[in-house]
Amino acid sequence: MRLHILKRDAEAAEATPVAANVLVSGTPQTRVWITYDAPAERLCAGEWEATPGKWRVTYEEWEYCLMVSGLCVVEGDDGTRIVAGPGDAFVLEPGFVGTWEVLETMRKHWVIRTPA
């Protein structure tokens, strides 16, 4: 099949707390819905939701994000910083290290390509 309609399960994904070893502040919870998964191509897509808080991140994968709702700040240890809200899109590349801070409960669509 070469065409896929992406639909997420109508049931809410289970909320998961951000791991204590990366937590900077708050008590954020995340939910993930995977709408497309193609392991042979190292590609997946879905929807992600998070409640307010801040945590450390290290990316080994490439990720495209399109904000649907809410507000976040993503800041690299190198000083790069973006503030993103509804309609904003950005890419995180392998090697990005920094923090992800959710200021208002947010939801994003994402596409991830994992390393070979």
Summarize the structure.
The protein is mainly beta and 116 residues long.
Strand content: over 45%
Q: Helices and strands, in N-to-C order?
A: EEEEEEEEE
Work out the radius of gyration: 14 Å
State the end-to-end distance: 23 Å
* Largest beta-sheet characterization: 9 strands, antiparallel
Can you put this structure into words, describing what you see?
This protein has 116 residues and is an all-beta fold. It has no helices and nine strands. It has strands at 16-17, 23-26, 29-38, 43-50, 53-58, 62-76, 81-84, 89-92, 97-113. Strands 1, 2, 3, 4, 5, 6, 7, 8 and 9 form a nine-stranded antiparallel sheet that branches. β3 and β4 (43-50) form a beta hairpin. The chain is globular and about 40 Å long. The protein starts with 15 loop residues before the first strand and ends with a strand.
Features of the shown structure:
9 strands, 116 residues, nine-stranded antiparallel sheet, mainly beta
In terms of topology, how is this protein built?
Blueprint: E1 16-17, E2 23-26, E3 29-38, E4 43-50, E5 53-58, E6 62-76, E7 81-84, E8 89-92, E9 97-113
Antiparallel strand pairs: 1-3, 2-5, 3-4, 4-9, 5-9, 6-7, 6-8, 6-9
